[in-house]
Amino acid sequence: MSAPLVVEGLTVHYPDGHRALHGLDLRVGAHERWALVGRSGSGKTTLVRAVLGLLPSGSRATGSVRVGGTEVLGAPERVLRGLRGLVAGYVPQDPFAACDPLRAVGHHVAEAWTAHRRTPPAGAVVDGLTGVGIADAAARAVQRPHQWSGGMLQRATLLAATAHDPLLTLADEPTSALDADLADDVLALVRRRCGALLLISHDLALVARHADSVLVLDGGRAVERGPAADLLTAPAVAETRRLVAASAPVARRASPSAAAAGEPVARVEDVSRRYRHAGGEVVAVDGVTLAVRPGEVVGVVGRSGSGKSTLVRLLGGMEKPDSGTTVLGGTRPGYVMPVFQDPVASLDRRWTLWRTLTEPLSARGERHGRARRRALAAAALERVGLSGVDPDRLPGSLSVGQAQRVAVARALAADPALLVADEPTASLDVAAAAAVTDLLRGIADAGTAMLVVSHDERRLASYADRVVRMRDGRLVG
Fold it and tell me: Which of 85, 106, 122, 176 could form a disulfide with 141 if both were Cys (CB 3.0 to 4.6 A apart)?
């Protein structure tokens, strides 16, 4: 029987001439668990696109990619459609982009069958959602994607990807929106339902628990491969050593003199927020009081669906509470700027990066010529570790991790009094996440208040002054 995935000498050039992969070889045997790791832009997502036959039009791919014995490179669309979902399941990094915003989440799951002109078995959608931890699944299935948290929606996407017990499952950062416990549960589910797994992840601890073998990419080349237990504890090459070192952040030890002072920049007092839907009502935030002061980083942790993102929107003034009070103010004037959980959707795909990055300046009345705006954008990109990125590029040419750094840079461009960030490092490789959190800490030390939601409690503790926990819409502990 053919191996689920065989890649030989794969080289990929994008239409702009960029070489994303060079001479890559990989064999994933039946029931093997491989992980693909590397920095953002190293070629991980390009490999997934090549395997699924989803490279952008105009791309050039040479070599061979065989899925279940079928050659993918150059295959007609009819053949590729027969592979996707049935032979090769795909879990995307961005669950919101994977769903039609005008249709119910249940419809998204049912497409695992209807896309192949099949009828879902009776109860398959609701029972499946219940099986991946969605409470009151029958009522939630009729809701639209925007009514679900990112973590909940990712579970629905995982269900759709593994509905047919595929020979191979490609999972591109499938747990970036999930808390650690749920991430383990979800990946255990994927492992049970698929024959072989190729996991793309920045979470090296997760990789160590769920992958048998690891391939490290750097600049589109394979630089190291081997058993996960050996490679992640005794890496042989410099790039792997850098990734391993950056994956172990140390908890911040704030001195008394570093404590934030002054009147709160923003506070909520006994706020509650409810969302109504056809099946009833969901209490997302229930009687929460919290304040953030200048120079303070307040972290919020909790399981997916606990109300963290709603609290961020309330404190940042992006939503109004059903009851309670939200106060924005303090001694420092300025803007409240958000960094969203979905970096790709938060950037206008039609705008060049220089226009996106300087829009906050235009919004507050500054007027600069194009040359000056490009120079300001280049400086903003350098600030978040993207000095080699051309300000004239469009967001669609960036990796998701690069897009998140652009979103952080855009927020910082306005020099906000309060920055509210929903999972600002979820899409970043460990090295980039360490650089961004160092940047956020430096901005806070200069006086900006921050409220940060994250599932990565260990990294959050490395730069937050205090961390609060949410459970069922309330602050606990």
Answer: 106
- Walk along the chain (477 residues) in steps of 10 and give the mean pLDDT of each run: 90 92 96 91 91 93 96 94 92 82 94 92 93 88 87 85 91 76 77 86 87 95 94 92 84 54 87 81 91 94 86 89 86 70 83 94 86 94 87 85 86 87 80 82 90 89 93 89
Please tell me the distance from the alpha carbon of residue 214 to that of residue 228, in angstroms, as a whole number.
Answer: 5
The burial of 105, by beta-carbon neighbours within 10 Å (0-12 exposed, 13-18 middle, 19 or more buried), is given as buried
Sign of the torsion formed by the C-alpha atoms of 431, 404, 146 and 307: positive
**Count of residues making up the chain:** 477
For 147-203, the DSSP string reads GS-HHHHHHHHHHHHTTT--SEEEEESTTTTS-HHHHHHHHHHHHHH-SEEEEE-S-
Burial (CB count within 10 angstroms: exposed 0-12, middle 13-18, buried 19+), residue 350: exposed
Q: How far is CA 450 from CA 18, 342, 429, 443, in A?
A: 37, 18, 22, 9
CA quadruple 293, 297, 302, 307: dihedral sign? positive
Please give the single-letter amino acid code of residue 110: A
The two most distant CA atoms of the chain are separated, in Å, by 69
Q: What angle do CA 367, 406, 201 make, to 5 degrees?
A: 175
Whole-model pTM? 0.75
CA distance 428 to 246: 12
